[in-house]
Amino acid sequence: xxxxxxxxMANQQVIPTKLxxxxxxxxxxxxxxxxxxxxxxxxxxxxVHLSRETEREALLQFKGGLRxxxxxLSSWVPGIDCCRWSGVGCDxxxxxxxxxxxxxxxxxxxxDMYKRWRLGGEIGPSLLELxxxxxxxxxxxxxxxxxxxxxxxxxxxxxxLNLSHADLGGTIPHHLGNLSKLQTLDLGGNxxxxxxxSAIGTMSSLKxxxxx
Length: 212
Fold this sequence. Notes:
alpha/beta, Leucine-rich repeat, LRR (right-handed beta-alpha superhelix), 2 domains, 6-stranded mixed beta sheet, two-stranded antiparallel ribbon, 10 strands, globular
């Protein structure tokens, strides 16, 4: 005679079915997190990649406005990770550009090399795309008496700004007072005219200020 299924045997058959259903639901929810309603992939890694592409394009545009007689920026080429470019520093965790150090590597007392290695041209507004930039050094270059661009006051993540001995002129923009996180501001050795904007005196985080 054939024995019928006992309750214990029935439970043993049901448990795997419930487990499979649970695993299926988890996989479904995970897939839902990755696919947005428009049918495209929605991944944090993809967002970071897109942001870094924007930063790289911004740096290439910035380079396009500069004169670089000694090819200091020869490593700035498409197809290479911008974090590996000369003078560019990135956050190790996020990969975002946080540092741009383009100061002249030769001191003024080595006058011939100092003049030869100076960058010139325009400080272009594409830097605004570097949303995480906290360190900017363009010192000891040659910007032909141009004023500090007003957009520099919108680089609100800056903690360090060095534009000293960069052959800048005109008036100092009061927009620099918007840099509430700035700790070091060096504008010495330029040919500015007019008064120092009062807004600079209200920068609560400022620890170092050089104007001469």
